[in-house]
Amino acid sequence: MKHVAQLALTGLLLVSSTPAGIPSPQEDAVAAAAALPYPENYRSTMTLYAVVDRPDGMVRKLYVSLPALEAVKNQRAYPTSGDALYVIENYKAQSANQKYLLDAQKHMIPRENPETIHVMQRRGNVSGAMDNWNVQSFQVASHTPDLTATLSECWSCHVSAEKRDFVFSRPVLQKFLLTRQVQRWDCPKTNRQLCDQHLDPQ
Ligand code: HEC
C-alpha cells in the first residue's frame, strides 16, 4: 500500500513538474529559448509555403510543420506538444554592381544559405505565456542561438498578430492551403514592416 502511494506520489510529481520545467518566454527568455533546440532537417520535414522579398535586399522563406499546417487547415488550436513549429529563413539577396540580381520572374535571388533562422514553437508552458509560443533565433552556420537577437523584440512585434495566433503569415498560409502553390510576394516595405499580405481579408 505504502509502495502504491509512493508510486502515485512520484507520478504526480512528474506530471506536475513537467510544465513548470519549461518557463514562458515572458518569465525567463533565456531558459525558454534553451528549451527550444535547433530544428534539424526542417527543410525536409517541414513545408515551404511562402517566400517574401523586401526592398532592403532580404529574402525570407517560411516553413510550417505538418501538425501546425493541419491545425490551420482544420481551424483548430495549435497543439502544445512541441510539434507546432514555424521557421523563417533570413537570406541576403545576391547583388552585383550595387544592384540586386533578379530571376526571370523578377524576383530577387537569395544567397546559397540563410545567415539566421527564426523559430516559433508552441509547447506546454505554464499559464500566462504568450499563448504558449517559444521563440529563438539561430545562427545557421553553427546551429547555435544567435546571441545578438533580443527575444523580447520578437514578442513586441508579433503581438500585433495576436488575432492570427501571433503568426503574421496565416492569411498567406491559408492561400497556400487552397492552391498548394508556394506563395511568393514582394513586400514594398523594408525590415519586417507589415504589408497587405499579412492581414486577414476583410
Ligand atoms: C518588427 C517586427 C518583427 C520582429 C521584431 C520579429 N518578427 Fe517574426 N515576422 C514578422 C513578420 C512581418 C513576419 C511575416 C514574414 C515577413 O513579412 O517577413 C514574420 C514571420 C515570422 C515567422 C514565420 C511565422 C509568421 O509569423 O508568419 C517566425 C517563425 C518568426 N517571424 C519568428 C520571429 C522571431 C523568433 C523573432 C525574434 C528573434 C522575430 N520573429 C522578430 C515580424 C517580426
UniProtKB/TrEMBL annotation:
Classification via CDD domains: cyt_P460_fam
Pfam families xref list: Cytochrome_P460
Limits of the Cytochrome P460 domain: 39-169
Signal peptide boundaries: 1-20
Record's keyword terms, sorted: Signal
Domain of life: Bacteria
Full protein name: Cytochrome P460 domain-containing protein
Organism: Deinococcus roseus
Taxonomic lineage from the root: Bacteria, Thermotogati, Deinococcota, Deinococci, Deinococcales
